[in-house]
Each structure stands twice: as structure tokens, then as C-alpha cells.
Amino acid sequence: MVTTSDATAPTTKRAQRFEPCRWSGVVFVLIGVPGFVLGNPTSPYSARADDYVARYAEGAGSAPLGRLLGLGAVIALLWALARLRIVFPPERAGQPAGAIQLAGSLYAASWVGVIVTAAATYTAVDHAESFGGFEVVPETAFVIDFIADGFIWANLVSAAVLVWGIALASRRTGALPGWLCWVGFVLAPLLPVGWMLFMVPALVFYLWFAAIVAIVPVRRSAGA
Q1: pTM
Q2: Total number of domains in the chain
Q3: In whole angstroms, what separates CA 191 from the centre of its chain?
Q4: In the structure, what pLDDT confidence band is assigned to residue 223 with cuts at 50, 70 and 90?
Q5: Residue 10 falls within a domain, yes or no?
Q6: Whole-angstrom Cα distance, residue 69 to residue 10?
């Protein structure tokens, strides 16, 4: 006769091997980076307002897909943060646990801000080139685009605090290999000035975040 514990043991083992939340960081990177590129065309800082309008008009076809991917990335990011909340509870990680959750929330909010301002810029461009009705001057798109730049900078700053919190919490709890923690400590101060380094720190952050969410161990209670 198969007991209840014997019947449920294989299911529990399978659940431990396949955890969708474990791959939320990878999903965030795989759809977030293309979404950001498709939804936020870049222009040189010396460009005139008309140049901004023309650049956004060229990317209008891919913008809706970029926004959908961006929103999907935010959902995956929230799942990843929920996993980190389990791994680094305040009673084990101390203050860094609070920093992780606060910075993670701000990071997700800044992602939404980038998506919204990019959508507003495309709307302004569309009206600037439309016939009749309410016509928006090109400078409007120019200004909104700079607001999006502000959200991107906030995104980098909150990512820096998030990385520092994860690295410090990992050192205190031993949840991650030491070298991954040190990568985080080196990466954190570079993120706020990532735009001066051709956004290379941001790309490293995406890979680092996806890796730590996938490999970090989740402690289960005895009755789980």
C-alpha cells in the first residue's frame, strides 16, 4: 500500500526541480532588454527637436511591441523580487533585506515610468505629424523624452542600491558564492554613471541579476 507521504514525495521533488519563479530573472532580461530597445529609440544629445520627432516616427511601428515586452518584464521582475524576499528575510539578512525590497520597488516603478513616458512621446510625435485637431509642436516630444531620461537615471540608481543590498545580504547569509557578491560590490557604484560607460554596467547588471535569481537557494519549512 502506498502511504500519503510516499505518494506526495515524488511531486515535492518535481516541484523543487522546476520552480517557475527561479527563472523569472531570466525572463525579465530576455524580454526586458528587447522591449527597452524597441520602445526607446536613442537620439544624440545635440539633436534638434525635429530630429527627435523624426527618430521616434521611424520607430513607431515597433513601439507597441516594445511596451508590451516592457510590461511583461515588470511582471517577471516582481516575481523575481518576491523570490528574493523569501531568500533574504529581515530576520536573517537584517537591513539589506529592506534595501532590496525598497530599491526593487523603485526599480520596477522606474521601469513603468520609462514605458509611460516613451508612450507619451510617441503620442506627441503622432499628433505633431497629424492633420487637423490638436497639433503638438516637436518641442513637446523633446521635453517628454528628457523626462524619460530622468526615469532611466532613476532606474540605474535604484538598480545600484538593489545590487548593493543583494550582495551585502548574500555575504551575511552565505546564500551566494563570494565572487558573485564581489561582482555586485564592484558593479553597484558603476550603475549610476552607466550612461557614461555606454550602458555596459546595465548589461552586466541584467546578467548578474538573472544569474542570482536562478541560483539562489530558497529555504523551505519542514512541513513544505
Answers
A1: 0.81
A2: 1
A3: 13
A4: very low
A5: no
A6: 36
